[in-house]
Amino acid sequence: MSERFSCLDDDEREAGLEAAWSAVRDKALVVMPTDTVYGIAADAFEADAVAALLAAKGRGRHMPPPVLVASTTTLDALASRIEPYVHTLTEAFWPGPLTVICRQQESLVWDLGETRGTVAIRMPDDENALALLRRTGPLAVSSANLTGHPAATTIEQAEDQLGSSVAVYLDGGPAGSGVPSTIVDCTGETPRIVRVGAVTAEQIAELGVEVG
Known about the structure:
Elements: E1 3-6, H1 10-25, E2 30-32, E3 39-43, H2 47-57, E4 67-68, H3 74-78, E5 79-80, H4 84-93, E6 98-104, E7 118-122, H5 127-136, E8 139-143, H6 155-162, E9 168-171, E10 182-185, E11 192-195, H7 201-205
Parallel strand pairs: 1-9, 2-9, 4-7, 6-10
Antiparallel strand pairs: 2-3, 3-8, 4-8, 5-6, 6-7, 10-11
């Protein structure tokens, strides 16, 4: 049986964050608001939980979920051989709608799917999401929708699509922009935009970062 909590009420928000934290520890799934769209989340370090996330969306291992973090410093813990421009990008756009694909730390024990040794990382600009991430640590998070369907921008849309596959729903009201994050491949000497989203190529170029 799924539980739903409103993050618009302080007391209910606290209860919801506790319930979501407990669910993550139990390898269950949580839906939470972000600054872009609603996300479905699982403990990034629990392979069974990540597999359940992909199954709930109807997605295969060939489409591994990004990892959301609560701090820019976590980037160095999850990624290795980080190109200098990555810090330029994250200092400018984190927290915010920019996802960077980096080489993952080889010492990490997790299974996000067929990542080919990389990890996609983002720090969301949403206080409810950050509050949960501070409690749980890095979460594997994908848009809260069935694959092939529009991303959920309200908790009702997420519930309609994902139903009882999710243990806890955190309602933060309408999601931020409704526009997905921009995904940039940062594994090479020059960054390459994989998906155009809320951050534009022009905004990146204004930082003096050449985009391939």
